[in-house]
Amino acid sequence: MAGGETLISNVSDTARWVATYRAMEAAREDALFHDPLAERLAGERGYAMVAAASRIMRNGWPVVTRTRIIDDLIATAIAEGCDRVLNLAAGLDTRPYRLGLPADFVWVEADLPALTAEKEAALAEEKPHCALIRRGVDLADPAALAEFLDWSLGPLGPENSPATKTLVLTEGLLMYLKEETVRAIAAALSRSEIRWWVMDVTVAMNRMRSSSMFENAPLEFEPGNGIAYFEDLGWRSREVEHLLVHARKLHRAPWYLRPFTYLPQPNPRKPGRNPWSGIVRFESD
């Protein structure tokens, strides 16, 4: 595993990379969140990935900031009546174990079967704070996705109730998919039971796109018109958080990038060739 090319053999391996940054943040005295399970899930391979990716992302500030923003958006949605979360491509996320969720709240995770089974085994002795259900599914398969949504939005959890105001999370997923798959997912999520969709949107990811480290997990999707791409598909943006600006507010932005956060920022609907990365909570029309 000396070379970056061998560290990431497929998209699922990027989950270890992300978990490592969460573990590093959780170890700080001024941690923005606590994640005692992240280090176990990351493993040695995850830390090797972080070392290899140091030229792309020195201290993991995008992952850390993204995690905190999404934590806050989930809490806001629950306060607004959200009764279910569907975490698509959940990877090694641990929010059901670390967020203050109601015991009867239904949280459904979906990811490829192999990664889902690995996570299930690794956390078998841990108790989530809510009603957590996992399922292995290929989200790029339209028929499998439709079947999963029918099941996951139906009667589940302690009260065996169907979902009525669901939040769908696709953290770190869409960038690895082909555009036609993204459009298919957006169409599949247009259901009355789904109220919100939280995602990260990134434009002009040239450094990651050109890195040999991601040769086996290529970045496929990049909406040239930013969040307008999803608005044109019928999703109304509620909150739009510029990642770098938010990182500066949280004291996580690298010193050499902080001056840029005080300049006029790219229009998230017309970023052009300007690098832009943000977290968005969309609402269905």
TrEMBL record:
Gene3D superfamilies: Vaccinia Virus protein VP39. Keywords: Methyltransferase, S-adenosyl-L-methionine, Transferase. The keyword RNA-binding does not apply. SUPFAM superfamilies: S-adenosyl-L-methionine-dependent methyltransferases. InterPro entries: Ppm1/Ppm2/Tcmp, SAM-dependent_MTases_sf, SAM_mthyl_Trfase_ML2640-like. One of its GO terms (molecular function) is methyltransferase activity. The keyword S-adenosyl-L-methionine applies. Signal peptide: none annotated. Its EC number is 2.1.1.-. One of its GO terms (biological process) is methylation. It holds the Pfam family LCM. It is an enzyme of class 2 (transferase). Belongs to the UPF0677 family. Exhibits S-adenosyl-L-methionine-dependent methyltransferase activity. This is S-adenosyl-L-methionine-dependent methyltransferase.
